[in-house]
Amino acid sequence: MIHPTAEPGTPDPFTEHRRLLFATAYHMLGSVSDAEDILQDAWLKWSAADRDDIRYPKAYLVRTVTNLALNRLTSAAATREAYVGPWLPEPWLTTPDIAEEAELTDTVSMAMLVVLETLSPVERAVFLLREVFGYSHAEIAEVLERPEPTIRQIAHRARQHVQARRPRYDADPARRDTVTRSFIAACQGGDLNAMMELLAPDVVAWSDGGGKVTAARKPLHTPDRVARWIVGVLTKPGLDALEIHPASINGEQGVLFTLAGHPLGALTFDLRNNQIHRLRLQVNPEKLKGVGRGYGE
Fold first, then answer.
1. Which of 23, 41, 79, 123 could form a disulfide with 119 if both were Cys (CB 3.0 to 4.6 A apart)?
2. pTM to 2 decimals?
3. Which residues does 243 contact at the CB level (< 8 Å), separation at least 6?
4. Is 212 within 8 Å of 284 (Cβ atoms)?
5. How far apart are CA 135 and CA 251, in angstroms?
6. Half-sphere exposure of residue 260, counting CA atoms within 13 Å on the CB side?
7. What is the tens place of the pLDDT at every residue in 122-171?
8. Can you point out the beta strands (E) in 31-178?
């Protein structure tokens, strides 16, 4: 897992491990823009570091990114407490094959990121390094500069916490594709009945507007209420030219809403028995900037 300093002529370690570093920061923060900021700060530290003192570049870089993310996550706690309405992670527009990567499977979904949000910053770091990226307790102890027995206790506690809350839903890509296309057709046609048939009896919907755009301030329940809310949003004035696309969001097929090429919303959902059981709509423009860049702005 950890490699000694590369020989001259080999790729720069930061470039070589950039995908891992971004994934680490994004898992920690649930924000594409914050993860990119962390990588920029890590690059500055890496550029200024004395390479002769760094025997294991990958370990150095992961430690740097993890601790930068920890500091940002801790400082963001008060801001999130004052957040207007439900807080949802910032969507990440991914490639369709990202779920094939073992280190990202089932851990980058919106459902999982919401669970990770219930951990303390240190618990989150330990869980991710151990369960997602496969680091040993000794390596994590070195990264976080804590005794190994303490890391073992934190890892055990975090794993139990996540397992108790970890979502268990249908993940079959063909099934998701069918439901996604049926959902888009219902949205485009304003077909309330068709949409209600796609929603589970105990469906719950969250929308994150962050106080910047109109969104439901509390979770919505029941197929009738959720369907009417979605149709109501889509029929607002000025949205006649709204385009609705299937998109790979956080490693799963979801729905992207765009107007004149600009993202207005990103919707992800969890399936159970071929019905939408949990639905999350991100409409906060500040949290759609990363989607916009990924979409081609």
1. 123
2. 0.84
3. 257, 258, 259
4. yes
5. 22
6. 2
7. 999 999 999 888 899 999 999 999 999 999 999 999 999 999 988 777 66
8. none
